Amino acid sequence: MASFFRKLFSSETANRHGPSDFSTVDSAARVRIAACAIMVEVARADDDFTSEEHAIIVDSLKAEFNLSDDEAGDLISIASRKTDESIDTWGFTHTLNESLSEPEKIGVIEAIWKIIFSDGRLGKHEDTLIHKLSFLLGLTHQQMIAAKMKMLEGSQGES
Questions:
Q1: Count of domains in the chain?
Q2: Which of 12, 48, 57, 66 has its CA 20 to 30 A from that of 81?
Q3: pTM for the full model?
Protein backbone atom coordinates (compact mmCIF):
# COMPACT_ATOMS: atom_id res chain seq x y z
CA MET A 1 0.00 0.00 0.00
CA ALA A 2 1.37 3.41 -0.96
CA SER A 3 2.09 5.74 1.90
CA PHE A 4 0.32 9.03 2.52
CA PHE A 5 3.25 10.94 1.01
CA ARG A 6 3.36 8.87 -2.16
CA LYS A 7 -0.36 9.46 -2.62
CA LEU A 8 0.18 13.20 -2.26
CA PHE A 9 2.66 13.22 -5.11
CA SER A 10 1.31 10.55 -7.42
CA SER A 11 2.23 10.89 -11.08
CA GLU A 12 -1.34 12.03 -11.80
CA THR A 13 -1.00 14.94 -9.37
CA ALA A 14 2.44 15.84 -10.70
CA ASN A 15 1.21 15.79 -14.29
CA ARG A 16 -1.76 17.98 -13.43
CA HIS A 17 0.04 20.55 -11.35
CA GLY A 18 3.74 20.38 -12.15
CA PRO A 19 6.61 19.15 -10.03
CA SER A 20 6.85 22.05 -7.58
CA ASP A 21 3.16 22.76 -7.02
CA PHE A 22 2.02 22.49 -3.41
CA SER A 23 -1.56 23.65 -4.05
CA THR A 24 -3.03 20.19 -3.60
CA VAL A 25 -1.09 19.43 -0.43
CA ASP A 26 -2.48 20.27 2.99
CA SER A 27 -0.67 22.65 5.32
CA ALA A 28 0.71 19.95 7.63
CA ALA A 29 2.20 18.04 4.70
CA ARG A 30 3.77 21.23 3.30
CA VAL A 31 5.44 21.86 6.66
CA ARG A 32 6.76 18.29 6.81
CA ILE A 33 8.11 18.49 3.28
CA ALA A 34 9.70 21.91 3.88
CA ALA A 35 11.36 20.84 7.15
CA CYS A 36 12.66 17.66 5.58
CA ALA A 37 13.87 19.48 2.46
CA ILE A 38 15.92 21.84 4.58
CA MET A 39 17.45 18.93 6.48
CA VAL A 40 18.26 17.15 3.19
CA GLU A 41 19.81 20.33 1.81
CA VAL A 42 22.05 20.61 4.88
CA ALA A 43 23.04 16.94 4.64
CA ARG A 44 24.05 17.52 1.03
CA ALA A 45 25.97 20.75 1.77
CA ASP A 46 29.32 18.98 2.07
CA ASP A 47 28.62 16.77 -0.98
CA ASP A 48 28.52 13.68 1.24
CA PHE A 49 25.00 12.67 2.36
CA THR A 50 26.03 9.94 4.78
CA SER A 51 23.97 7.10 6.21
CA GLU A 52 24.39 8.70 9.64
CA GLU A 53 22.91 11.97 8.38
CA HIS A 54 20.06 10.01 6.80
CA ALA A 55 19.42 8.25 10.12
CA ILE A 56 19.37 11.58 11.98
CA ILE A 57 16.83 12.96 9.53
CA VAL A 58 14.67 9.82 9.84
CA ASP A 59 14.81 10.00 13.64
CA SER A 60 13.96 13.73 13.60
CA LEU A 61 10.99 13.18 11.27
CA LYS A 62 9.70 10.25 13.30
CA ALA A 63 9.95 12.18 16.56
CA GLU A 64 8.58 15.50 15.29
CA PHE A 65 5.82 14.24 13.03
CA ASN A 66 5.03 10.81 14.52
CA LEU A 67 5.94 8.95 11.33
CA SER A 68 6.85 5.34 10.70
CA ASP A 69 10.21 4.40 9.17
CA ASP A 70 8.54 3.92 5.78
CA GLU A 71 6.71 7.25 5.95
CA ALA A 72 9.93 9.05 6.94
CA GLY A 73 11.76 7.36 4.05
CA ASP A 74 9.03 8.39 1.62
CA LEU A 75 9.14 11.94 2.94
CA ILE A 76 12.92 12.08 2.45
CA SER A 77 12.48 10.90 -1.15
CA ILE A 78 9.87 13.57 -1.84
CA ALA A 79 11.89 16.28 -0.11
CA SER A 80 15.01 15.25 -2.02
CA ARG A 81 13.12 15.61 -5.28
CA LYS A 82 11.80 19.00 -4.17
CA THR A 83 15.30 20.25 -3.33
CA ASP A 84 16.53 19.05 -6.74
CA GLU A 85 13.74 21.08 -8.38
CA SER A 86 14.28 24.17 -6.23
CA ILE A 87 16.70 26.98 -6.96
CA ASP A 88 17.01 28.05 -3.30
CA THR A 89 15.79 27.39 0.23
CA TRP A 90 13.59 30.48 0.54
CA GLY A 91 10.38 28.67 -0.42
CA PHE A 92 10.95 26.02 2.22
CA THR A 93 11.77 28.52 4.96
CA HIS A 94 8.80 30.67 3.92
CA THR A 95 6.50 27.66 4.42
CA LEU A 96 7.98 27.06 7.87
CA ASN A 97 7.69 30.75 8.80
CA GLU A 98 4.00 30.71 7.94
CA SER A 99 3.28 27.67 10.09
CA LEU A 100 5.80 27.24 12.91
CA SER A 101 6.20 29.05 16.18
CA GLU A 102 9.59 30.43 17.18
CA PRO A 103 10.33 27.45 19.49
CA GLU A 104 9.45 25.06 16.65
CA LYS A 105 11.80 26.89 14.28
CA ILE A 106 14.52 26.67 16.91
CA GLY A 107 13.83 22.92 17.02
CA VAL A 108 14.44 22.74 13.27
CA ILE A 109 17.77 24.55 13.73
CA GLU A 110 18.70 22.13 16.53
CA ALA A 111 18.04 19.19 14.18
CA ILE A 112 20.15 20.89 11.52
CA TRP A 113 23.06 21.32 13.94
CA LYS A 114 22.83 17.61 14.75
CA ILE A 115 23.07 16.77 11.04
CA ILE A 116 26.00 19.15 10.57
CA PHE A 117 28.00 17.73 13.46
CA SER A 118 27.25 14.08 12.69
CA ASP A 119 30.71 13.87 11.11
CA GLY A 120 32.37 15.76 13.98
CA ARG A 121 33.17 18.92 12.06
CA LEU A 122 31.63 22.10 10.66
CA GLY A 123 32.37 22.58 6.96
CA LYS A 124 32.43 26.06 5.43
CA HIS A 125 29.38 25.36 3.25
CA GLU A 126 27.49 23.99 6.24
CA ASP A 127 28.41 27.05 8.29
CA THR A 128 27.20 29.39 5.57
CA LEU A 129 23.98 27.42 5.14
CA ILE A 130 23.08 27.30 8.87
CA HIS A 131 23.55 31.08 9.10
CA LYS A 132 21.40 31.61 6.01
CA LEU A 133 18.66 29.26 7.26
CA SER A 134 18.61 30.87 10.71
CA PHE A 135 18.25 34.30 9.10
CA LEU A 136 15.51 33.12 6.72
CA LEU A 137 13.64 31.57 9.65
CA GLY A 138 13.75 34.91 11.46
CA LEU A 139 15.98 33.68 14.26
CA THR A 140 18.72 35.74 15.85
CA HIS A 141 22.38 34.82 15.85
CA GLN A 142 22.07 34.23 19.61
CA GLN A 143 19.20 31.76 19.07
CA MET A 144 21.23 29.91 16.45
CA ILE A 145 24.23 29.65 18.76
CA ALA A 146 22.04 28.60 21.71
CA ALA A 147 20.61 25.80 19.52
CA LYS A 148 24.14 24.75 18.63
CA MET A 149 25.23 24.71 22.26
CA LYS A 150 22.13 22.75 23.30
CA MET A 151 22.82 20.16 20.62
CA LEU A 152 26.52 19.92 21.55
CA GLU A 153 25.74 19.59 25.27
CA GLY A 154 23.17 16.89 24.51
CA SER A 155 25.62 14.93 22.37
CA GLN A 156 28.26 15.03 25.11
CA GLY A 157 25.76 13.52 27.53
CA GLU A 158 25.18 10.63 25.10
CA SER A 159 28.89 9.71 24.90
A1: 1
A2: 66
A3: 0.82
